[in-house]
Structures are given as C-alpha cells and as structure tokens.
Task: structure prediction
Amino acid sequence: MRVCLLGAGGKVGALLAPALAAAGHEVLPLRRGESVDASGCDAAVDFTRPDAVEANVRVCLAQGVPCVIGTTGFDEAAVDAAARETGLPCFYAPNFAIGAVLMMRFAAEAAKHLPRAEIVEAHDERKLDAPSGTARATAAAMGTNPVIHSVRLPGLVAHQEVILGGPGQYLTIRHDTTSREAFVPGVLLALERLRNLPAGLTVGLDTLLG
Ligand code: NAP
Result:
C-alpha cells in the first residue's frame, strides 16, 4: 500500500516509517509544517498531536483517503461524522499494543466479579493528554466507573495497572510497553483491514483481533 504517514518526525512516527517500509508499504512521510497531501495514497496513518489530528483526518478524507489514527485525545464523534459523510472508513486504537488490548479484556472480565477498582496509568512526561486513551477505554470496558490516576514522568514509555479489590484480596492486572516497537504489529493489522471496515470511525484493536 502507499501510506501517508503524518507525524513522521515524532517518537512513534520515526520508528513506524522504516517498519512500514520493511513490511512492503510505500511510505510518504509528512512532518509538521508540510501541507497534507495524501492524494493517491491508499491510507493515511496519523501519530501527531491531539490538536492536529482532526484537521489532518478531514483533509485526508476529502482527498478520498481512509485513515488509521494513533493520536489520542481527539473528538471521536466529530471524526466519525466526517468519515460517514465521505463514506470512508477510519480506524482508531487508543493502544496499538496487543498486550494492552488483552489487559483491557482481562480487566473487563475481572470487573464482573470485583467491581471496586482503580486504574493507575503512567506515561512519559511529554504525553499531552491525561488520562490516557487506554485508561479511558479500559474504564469504559469495565463499566464500573473506576477512578483513574495519571502519572507523567521522564523515563517512562506507557504503563498501566488495573487494581481490583474485594474483602481480603486484591487483583492487579498490569501491562508495560517497554519500546514503541510494540505498536507496529497493531498498525500493520489496521492497515490490512482498513478497506473492509464500514464507513465511519471504528474504535479499538479488539474489534480486529476477533
Ligand atoms: P511526538 O513525539 O510528540 O510526535 C508527534 C509528531 O507530530 C511531532 O514530530 C510533531 O512535530 C508532529 N506534528 C505535530 N503537529 C503536526 C501536524 N499538524 N501535522 C503533522 N505532524 C505534526 O509524539 P509521539 O509519542 O510520537 O505520539 C504521537 C501521538 O500518538 C500522541 O497523541 C500519543 O499519545 C499517541 N500515541 C498513541 C499510541 C497508540 O497506541 N494509540 C501509542 C503511542 C503514542 P513537532 O515536534 O514539530 O511538534
């Protein structure tokens, strides 16, 4: 596929560009300040900033290009509406690491039996949004309205603990992303499935994993 990569100069983008090329995709890297021209591409991938992603996606959709979104902290309803208007699919995963998706599944299952829970998410201090998209998605999947604590410190990548407590016991479900390489297989899977998704925004790697 010919893939326009928005945010190619960022921490994730810089790792993703060679990984997409190694998987056989032709990559058009775009950095901040460069005009968004994705015409002729089969898909766009956005790992930019919460305040940039919606405008980027709208431009890509207007050019007939479906999008895979990694950037967190944007208005999902607005992007869904824009994608439906153009009749194109968009896919967003709050977390492209497959282990994190399993953590969310396990937390949802555990919450059925231990409804009192809190979430502690910890990320690199440069992450702009809090709580993280993963923490909000985990809380929604659990359905028990757990309190979310956000930690932002240097030296961290992406980490989350779900702690469920009951009388005389507690259960901790933990996932650690130690390198941004963890996001590559999820992005490749999303690109592979994108064209077969319905118009509008599909959310969550879980929906692609079966
Ligand atoms: P980052 O290092 O700050 O990279 C973002 C890049 O986007 C920077 O190079 C920035 O340029 C560029 N940029 C800003 N506005 C842009 C625009 N309008 N068009 C094109 N490029 C633009 O951040 P990151 O760690 O790579 O993360 C990027 C986003 O992905 C964040 O929202 C983060 O939370 C999210 N993320 C999601 C996942 C997931 O699994 N869903 C995983 C990791 C990260 P400047 O440096 O010049 O501003």
In short: The longest helix spans residues 98-111. The chain has a mean pLDDT of 96.
